[in-house]
Amino acid sequence: MDTDTLKQLVLNASHLHVFGYGSLLWKTDFKYDSKQVGFIKNYVRRFDLGNSTHRGTEKVPGRVAHIEESQGSKAWGVAFKISGKADIMKALSYLNNRECELGGYTTLVTEFHPREQPSQTITVLCYTATQNNKFYLGPTSYKNMAKQVVSARGKAGTNVEYVTKIADYVKFYIPEDQDEHLFELDYEIRFLVKQKRLSANNKLIEDHELHIQTLMEPVQAS
């Protein structure tokens, strides 16, 4: 969906819901009224998309989350409710730059199922990528992925921080989400960091309990 089409979609809308499943979970950076945990159907979270700005460079790209189609699956995350035309347009401008221009994502509209009332669906906007994306790295072993993640750093910080904070958020706030792909990658990253004794990243693991505390904000129902 291009930016102009997206703007037309929300032109007369009083509110907009944005679905976050990656770093938007813990680094939202736009104004929203409320948020609620839930899932979208027939998608799964993967880390096959490369990134050369926020969490990597062109020489050493990081791996970031995207969703891909998988019939019968669920991708868990959070729907953020944004109200008012001004705040909606401001959020879309920010997200278009963060996710599309710098991240290589595209947009799609789908139905979100709230955890408390899964039958009461909400239309959400979400950001994703396909195999046709120029940044697409493709799947590989968890060990290889972990090596790439541990080596990568971009303007926003380390790729280690990116993945482990997503895993922390999901474990703490969305225990229903038994995302083996995320947790297996998280395990291999932490194991490799400890093994290599990388001081900067060891600090992230040593401060794990403190790090969890920073995520302890209420998840509200809209």
Describe this structure in words.
With 222 residues, the chain is α+β, with helices and mostly antiparallel strands. It has a single domain (3-214), classed as Roll (Hypothetical upf0131 protein ytfp). 37% of the residues lie in helices and 30% in strands. The strands form 2 sheets. The chain has a 5-stranded mixed β-barrel with strand order 1-3-2-4-5. Strands 6-7 form a two-stranded antiparallel ribbon. A hairpin with a 7-residue loop joins strand 4 and strand 5. Helix 3 packs across helix 5 (180-196) and helix 4 (159-173) packs across helix 5. The chain is globular and about 50 Å long. This is glutathione-specific gamma-glutamylcyclotransferase. It is an enzyme of class 4 (lyase). GO terms for molecular function: glutathione specific gamma-glutamylcyclotransferase activity. Keywords: Lyase. Pfam families: ChaC.
What's the gist of this structure?
This protein is of the alpha+beta class.
Tell me the count of domains: 1
- Based on CA inertia axes, which overall geometry fits? globular
Which stretches are poorly predicted, pLDDT < 50 over at least 5 residues? 207-222
Helix proportion: 25-40%
Q: Compute the CA-based radius of gyration.
A: 17 Å
CATH fold node name: Hypothetical upf0131 protein ytfp
The end-to-end distance, rounded to whole angstroms, is 26 Å
Organism: Lottia gigantea (Giant owl limpet)
Protein name: glutathione-specific gamma-glutamylcyclotransferase
Pfam families: ChaC
GO biological process, one term: glutathione catabolic process
